[in-house]
Amino acid sequence: MAIIIIQNVVPFLGYIPLAGLSITTIHITVIIAAVILGPRDGALVGGIWGIIDWIRAFVAPTSPLAPMVFTNPLVSVLPRILIGVVAGWVFIWFNRRHKAELGLTLAGIAGSLTNTILVLGLIGTLYQHQAAGFYQVDLSKLMPYLLTIVGTNGVPEAILAGVLTPLIGTALLRFKHKS
């Protein structure tokens, strides 16, 4: 949880701002917590991130869209909790089949995509008009626009999580088993 707080406070450590969007790296910390500690603790760590995001939307938003959408805990908190749940269970399922490395990779990808798809899906569903105005697109083109963001932001974030989760997770799992 301390790492999540640091990533939220130190500029460029948890969010890399790009033209109205932010590439997120904090989800990787949640995913690693979920595979090392389990889905329940991963959900707790994700929930802490979500609560910090929710508070930040009121006091120091990370983007101009944040005060509109991240003040709703369905958008700011729930997807972050579900990162830990999904990543933790994907890892458990594969680890039971003696495919821990594959489980780490897929947990990273699944956790990352859970965040991206839920956040953007909820924005597109709950805040259609505000999001269309913010992104300056016609309402009928909002969902294709959001899917483009999934491709340009979400896919690279998922790849990064799929690479870093096994690299970091393997070492931490070895340390955990030795303890």
From TrEMBL:
| Key word 4Fe-4S present | no
Membrane-spanning segments: 12-37, 77-94, 106-127, 147-173
Q: Which GO terms describe its molecular function?
A: transmembrane transporter activity
Q: Which InterPro entries match?
A: ECF_trnsprt_substrate-spec
| Keyword Transport in annotation | no
Q: Gene3D superfamilies in the record, alphabetically?
A: 1.10.1760.20
Keyword list, A-Z:
Membrane, Transmembrane, Transmembrane helix
Tell me the protein's name. Integral membrane protein
Origin species: Lactiplantibacillus xiangfangensis
